Amino acid sequence: MARSLHVRLDEGSQAALDVLRAEGLTDSEVVRTALREAAARRRARSAIRHEVRRLAADERDREEMRLIREQLAELAPPPSD
Q1: CB within 8 A of 34, min separation 6: which ones?
Q2: Nearest alpha-carbon partner for 14 in 30, 38, 32
Q3: How far, in Å, are 27, 28, 29, 40 from residue 4 at the CA level?
Q4: Tens digits of per-residue pLDDT, 7-55?
Q5: How far apart are CA 81 and CA 76, in angstroms?
């Protein structure tokens, strides 16, 4: 069964709604789309955080990155004053 929501929009939210309405979307389509997109962004950020933690815990990867930083530092031009 469909669920109905009632919301109060601030100026920024109303402006965003107006932009999406101008694309021909109904209020319901706008809200459904916004909710799906927000959820997808949060899932992506969560996946990135998980990957960062995994890599940070990987000692071999950290050592490889340290070696790469050292090699790049050797290639960098000397600092100019």
Answers
A1: 20
A2: 30
A3: 12, 9, 13, 22
A4: 999 999 999 999 999 999 999 999 999 999 999 999 999 999 999 999 8
A5: 15
Token pair belonging to 4:
């109905």
- Whose CA is closest to 27, among 4, 50, 47, 61? 4
The Cα–Cα gap between 26 and 47 comes to 31
**Considering only CA atoms, which of 11, 29, 10 is closest in space to residue 20?**
29
**Cβ 68 vs Cβ 76: under 8 Å:** no
pTM more than 0.85: no
Q: What string of DSSP letters covers 17-56?
A: HHHHHHTT--HHHHHHHHHHHHHHHHHHHHHHHHHHHHHH
* Secondary structure of 55-71 as H, E, C letters: HHCCHHHHHHHHHHHHH
Amino acid at 21: R
